[in-house]
Amino acid sequence: MRYAAKIFPNKIFDTQIAASLVNIGYSMSYAGLLESLTGIKLTKSVTRSNWLARPLSDEQIKYAEDDVAYLERLYKILCSKISTYGRWSWLEDEISITIENVEARDSLEFYFERFKGKHRLDSRSLSVLKRLSCWRERTARAMNTPRQRVISDAILYKLAANLPKSYSDLSAIKELHPREIRVFGNTVISEIQKSFNDPEVVLIPSLLNNSGNTLVKSLHQHLTDFGELREIPVEVLVSKKELEVIVRSALSGNIRWPPRLLKGWRVDIVKPIISGFISNI
Asked: In this structure, which topology does domain 15-104 adopt according to CATH?
């Protein structure tokens, strides 16, 4: 809806999120949730069929209808459970976060922030990677094509690590196809050269060592036990990636809280538990 029709809904009810907040299951599928709450089983026979073919078969049409036919029933059941648990404000917080996360994808820097392996690069290469990542995103949007079809993550990483200085240097990167060099080569070199005038990118902390990973596991178990008592899946409380950020920063002496833990219900429910655990490190 957002990209195809330019429709930006700001009031939604996510059945999967609602289910997780009332301890039905974390990230449960629509079919699984429907069966769990109503006993209705949906057929999966055409899930992986060719949905680009026309006309759609009767089975495909029925499958598509079923995808929305029971939403109102699920909505009413989940609303009742949310009320029983007294977690409407939690649901509102989660929906708000979900909308914010979708809107964040409009930023050219969003995909640089999610880039894997950045901790292995120095500051100079990180600046190059950031600029190339933003350039690729602009290009993909202009061409209306997946970003990986412009240039893959693996090649962007190689470009940032090797820092080619000229068009001819690009041929040394074996993964870079001659067509990619021909179409994007001059632009890539130009973007790399421009990056030298960009603000320095702060180095990404290295991965946790064994003792750090042990702390993450202990904290995760601590939160799991808490969640079981409060009937909240631990995955709803905090993600493992967020715990790694917290532990890594705490070990460096300057704790950094992920955005989700600085607003909404997690400020009063989750953050104090983690703070208490971290204070004993």
From this structure: Nucleotidyltransferase; domain 5 (3.30.420)
